[in-house]
Write a structure and sequence with these properties.
mainly beta, 72 residues, 5 strands, 49% strand
Length: 72
């Protein structure tokens, strides 16, 4: 599933397999390439319950075996 990088900030995601018993996340930061401000590199996700943060390559959100858009 293609992910529109322009709409990542503030978007909601559900982990298909919970991470440390957490499955609902918000994108709180999008990091862009220093040479190309239109090219995202990584996103920082925040767990809704614990507020814990972790970073991953933004394209991993397009893997439907790992992530689903919205909160399910």
């Amino acid at each position: 599933m293609p992910v529109n990088h322009k709409k990542l900030q503030g978007s909601k995601w559900t982990a298909v397999t919970p991470r440390e018993r957490e499955k609902h996340f918000l994108v709180v930061k999008v990091e862009y390439d220093a040479d190309d401000a239109q090219k995202p590199l990584r996103v920082t996700l925040e767990a809704v319950l614990s507020r814990r943060h972790f970073t991953l390559p933004w394209r991993e959100l397009g893997d439907t075996d790992e992530w689903q858009p919205g909160w399910l």
